[in-house]
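Agenda item 2: magnesium ion complex prediction
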Amino acid sequence: MVTIKSKSEIEKMKIAGRVTYGALKAVEAAVKPGVTTAELDKVAEKYIHSQGCKASFKGYGGFPATICASVNDEIIHGFPGPRVLKEGDIICVDVGAIYKGYNGDAARTFGVGKISDEAQRLIDVTKQSFFEGLNFVKEGYRIHDISAAIQRYVEKNGYSVLRGYCGHGVGAEMHEDPEIPNYVTPTRGIRLKAGMCVAVEPMVCQFDYHTYVADNDWTVITKDGGLTAHYENSILVTNGEPYLLTLPKEEAEV
Ligand code: MG
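Presented output:
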């Protein structure tokens, strides 16, 4: 069921979103060669708790940490741990905060030190594909419109979108209806209405989109070893321009 949020729910979503954004900023500031992904996890957890929120991923379906930390060919659901980041790596960080029962959910991909032009281009195309999709996160458009815009932009730039993992509604649950694929499916999906909250999250592969799941039963990795990038924001649908819950307006003007 797709929920329409009340005014008071939206106020809580805005706070959860701001804290989720802040957690990503805190992690970004800590990303450098020599840091471990477990240390980045601590940074995010400490920040979320300092803001009176809970980390939504920890314990979700058994997930063991505050952030998903997915390095290079790992695209989503990486476990933070003793892995040491090195110059030239790229890391996808996905995080969520809960404020009074409401979720924020967002992801970014960061370069570690100096990265290759190709890795930077992958990160940039992934981010821009989110904004291509965002043009259709407005009352009256269908899910299909968002999916098509993301896929078209990614493929036009020579990359592929991950299959089988999707954006989603967000609210009292981290994952609510509707599903928002980053690729066209045979269904057109629901029409968006003001008051819905959705997380749009392109997951992009440098080469082929086929993946496997690691022995930890979570981490999704490209079969061909190609790099991957992820970019996500939680969004409130309105009658007009979409309201980004996990990105300040100044930073959305690209
Ligand atoms: Mg998400």
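Discussion summary: Residues 105, 168, 199, 201, 232 surround magnesium ion (CB under 6 Å).
Owner for follow-up: CH.
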